[in-house]
Amino acid sequence: MINVLLFAQLRDESGKESISIEGNGWSVDELKRKLKADYQLGSLETAMTAVNEEFADDDTILSDGDTVAFIPPVSGG
């Protein structure tokens, strides 16, 4: 299982803080496509991705037990 953490508007869009998904051997891109299809996460494309607390790109391959965090850009004043 892959543990997915969602922050800010991604959490609001999905109604969940975290999601567990069978994704062993998937790339981050494949995971994003699955999440967009299942949870209508429109802002996922602009989010930064971290795998096991290290920034990752869409080609990163995931393994069972990985934690993937999607962190959308924030603005402030």
Automatic annotation (TrEMBL):
One Gene Ontology CC term in the entry: molybdopterin adenylyltransferase complex
Pfam family, one: ThiS
Stored InterPro entries: Beta-grasp_dom_sf, MOCS2A, Mopterin_synth/thiamin_S_b, ThiS/MoaD-like
Pathway: Cofactor biosynthesis; molybdopterin biosynthesis
Keywords for this protein: Molybdenum cofactor biosynthesis, Nucleotide-binding
MF-aspect GO terms: nucleotide binding
Gene Ontology biological process: Mo-molybdopterin cofactor biosynthetic process
Reported function: Involved in sulfur transfer in the conversion of molybdopterin precursor Z to molybdopterin.
Assembly and oligomerization: Heterotetramer of 2 MoaD subunits and 2 MoaE subunits. Forms a stable heterotetrameric complex of 2 MoaD and 2 MoeB during adenylation of MoaD by MoeB. During catalysis MoaD shuttles between the two heterotetrameric complexes.
Family designation: Belongs to the MoaD family.
NCBIfam families: moaD
Protein's name in the database: Molybdopterin synthase sulfur carrier subunit
Source organism: Peribacillus simplex
